[in-house]
Design goal:
Elements: H1 11-30, E1 36-40, E2 63-67, H2 71-93, E3 97-98, H3 99-105, H4 107-110, H5 113-127, E4 136-137, E5 143-146, E6 149-152, E7 155-158, E8 167-168, E9 176-180, E10 185-189, H6 192-200, H7 203-207, E11 209-213, H8 220-233, E12 237-240, H9 245-256, E13 274-277, H10 282-285, E14 294-295, H11 298-308, H12 311-316, H13 318-330, E15 332-333, H14 346-357
Helix pairs in contact: 1-2, 2-5, 3-5, 11-13
This protein binds zinc ion (ZN).
């Protein structure tokens, strides 16, 4: 539940709130007032260097007024109503649909998926609920393997019977129960290629662990699943990303959540996550040859400079911030896979050694 903002998000409560919302718009119209919607604004970081902000507390930060009087807002309101109608129908009929299904109901109006995604986020804020309460199910992208078993909608998902077999991460987390594991740690990897490498190396069998990937920027089910595992299993969690601004940003999404879904950050972030690598210092430590290094592009530099200003890095992760500064100063980046220049199985040694030596941040 989003920050404990409301007591219930049952379908009947949400339908009541939708009715109330529509009623207020009709009142606006019948009183000759241009209809407008006031949305609480949430953010998970700002650029205030003083550290005195309230980002991360899951509290609204002002309001955004969407008014039909402004041309760009009129389009947003139209999209919001259309998506709200679809969600109302899903709730009334107790059916589920994906974000993609919703997009394909009016592609000429919505133009692109991001427009629908934004409307869904706005509706969550408006109705004070989380996305799963709207009967909107994501299309899962995340993968898991390792020393783990659980029930998903009554089905036994026994990853542990074959710890190197890859399973999709469940999309309806409400249906996941009875999580059991004797793993020693959880490792989150940025990329599917690294995940596959670890599967081929039978990494989980050897290291009694659970491995997860969101295949790039993690989606909602991957982040919720990771939160669920951490809550139930109380295991240490480590994250392995490329040494570049995108890898760093992905790492931050796991730890702090994303700006788009800041209204639900408490459900979607893992503050306990440690950064295992790859660090800039691994360059010297593992004698990485120059041919494996790439120069930061101007876009990379802009992204890194903007990230350096985020308040949560100052407040909660100054050591991470320093690594980012080093990356920017040296102007080079490299991928996790480049560490395998000598041996394909290098990562299978690198990960346990780093955990054993405590060389993570
Ligand atoms: Zn802030």
């Amino acid at each position: 539940m989003a920050g404990g903002r409301v007591s219930s998000s049952s379908p009947s409560d949400l339908l009541q709130r939708i009715k109330g919302f529509v009623r207020s718009l009709v009142e606006d119209l019948s009183n000759d007032r241009p209809p407008s919607v006031a949305l609480d604004r949430y953010r998970n970081y700002c650029h205030d260097p003083s550290g005195n902000c309230t980002c991360g507390d899951n509290l609204p930060n002002g309001k955004e007024i969407i008014s039909v009087e402004r041309e760009s807002h009129a389009y947003r309101l139209l999209v919001l109503f259309r998506v709200l109608l679809i969600i109302q129908q899903l709730l009334q009929e107790n059916k589920h649909g994906s974000k993609r299904d919703i997009y394909y109901m009016h592609p000429a109006l919505f133009l692109e998926q991001a427009v629908v995604d934004r409307a869904i986020n706005n509706i969550c804020i408006l109705l004070k609920c989380s996305r799963q309460h709207l009967n909107v199910v994501p299309v899962g992208r995340g993968l898991v393997m390792g020393w783990l078993r659980f029930l998903e909608a009554g089905r036994k998902i026994y990853c542990i019977n074959s710890p190197s077999t890859v399973y999709p991460i469940p999309v309806c987390l409400e249906e996941v129960v009875d999580i059991v594991s004797v793993a020693r740690f959880i490792i989150v990897v940025e990329k599917e290629s690294v995940f596959q490498r670890l599967a081929n190396d039978r990494f989980c069998e050897r290291n009694h662990c659970i491995v997860i990937t969101g295949r790039g920027y993690p989606d909602v089910p991957t982040r919720r699943f990771l939160c669920l595992l951490v809550q139930h299993l109380h295991l240490p969690v480590y994250c392995l990303v490329d040494c570049d601004p995108y890898g760093f940003d992905i790492l931050m999404v796991y730890r702090f959540g994303s700006m788009q879904m800041a209204y639900d950050a408490n459900l979607l972030r893992v503050p306990e996550i440690s950064w295992l690598g790859v660090f800039h210092s691994d360059l010297q430590k593992y004698h990485l040859p120059d041919r494996c290094l790439l120069e930061l592009t101007s876009d990379d530099k802009k992204k890194a400079e903007a990230m350096l200003l985020r308040c949560y890095l100052q407040k909660e992760a100054p050591k991470w911030r320093m690594e980012l500064e080093v990356m920017l100063q040296t102007g080079v980046k490299f991928e996790i896979e480049s560490l395998s220049f000598n041996s394909l199985s290098f990562l299978s040694e690198y990960i346990p050694t780093k955990i054993h030596d405590g060389s993570y941040l």
